[in-house]
Amino acid sequence: MSRQTLPMTDALHDYLLSVSLRETDVQRQLREDTARLPEAGMQLSPEQGQFLQLLVRLTGARRCLEIGTFTGYSALAVALALRDDGFITACDVSETWTDMAWRYWQAAGVAHKIFLRLAPARETLDALLEQDQAGLYDFAFIDADKEGYLDYYERALRLLRTGGLIAVDNTLWSGRPADPAVTDADTAAIRAFNRRLHADTRVDLSVLPVGDGLTLARKR
Ligand code: CA
Question: What is the helix (H) or strand (E) element at residue 43, kind and residue range?
Fold first, then answer.
């Protein structure tokens, strides 16, 4: 028995999905539609989407934030898991991608739970803070430009209530942060982000090797 996380082969990943995944038809169609885009690599994996749903249900989250919506798969997953009085404030800058998202949110009957903010996320989050929304959110998911991660995290932390949860995608970034020879801006940003969170006594922390690395930080 290994004391480390299992290496994920294609066969094992297929098996994992076969005994885990409970995707709706709309979720699957959105994923297949997104897979045809040149930016398909930015798509959340389906098991991550399902894990976000579990986190939302475990925490009883009602008010959610999303930074980086892309074609809407993660917001769709979260919205499907939310109670009917729950909502997501979704931040993105791309009209093209979020137009696609809207079609699927409507097809799934969850569009009324998603408030899309088409603007740089720092502006949207700062506006929420100015509107006295600090401490009101239960859950935040960060999956956007890597150089913005620390800014998004700091703002999301203020918007979260005590006990609220932040999930951050791509924190293992294809393994690049572990290789000192890799020094591009995105990898450096992820490294700095991971170091900062490791030392951040305001949160309980876990870095999970799910997908491309998923960090969970619970506000103390
Ligand atoms: Ca991602």
Answer: none
Ion ligand 1: protein residues whose beta carbon lies under 5 Å: 143, 169-170
Ligand 1 centre to CA of 1 (Å) is 30
> How far, in Å, CA of 57 to CA of 95, rounded?
29
What is the phi/psi pair of residue 92, to 5°?
-160, 165
80 in Cβ contact with 108 (< 8 Å): yes
> First and final CA of the chain: distance in angstroms?
34
Average pLDDT of the residues in 58-87 = 97
Mean pLDDT on 161-174: 97
- Distance from C-alpha of 220 to C-alpha of 200, rounded to nearest angstrom: 10
Report pLDDT for 2: 67
Answer positive or negative: Cα dihedral of 110, 113, 117, 123.
negative
CA 122 to ligand 1 center in whole angstroms: 18
43 phi, psi to nearest 5 deg = -70, 135
Cα 185 to chain centroid, rounded: 21
Distance 87 CA to ligand 1 centre (A): 21
- 211 vs 116, more confident: 116
Q: How many CA atoms lie within 13 A of 26 on its CB side?
A: 21
Residues counted in the chain: 220
pLDDT of residue 89 exceeding 80, the answer is: yes
- Give the chain's mean pLDDT: 96
- Cβ atoms 110, 56 nearer than 8 A: no
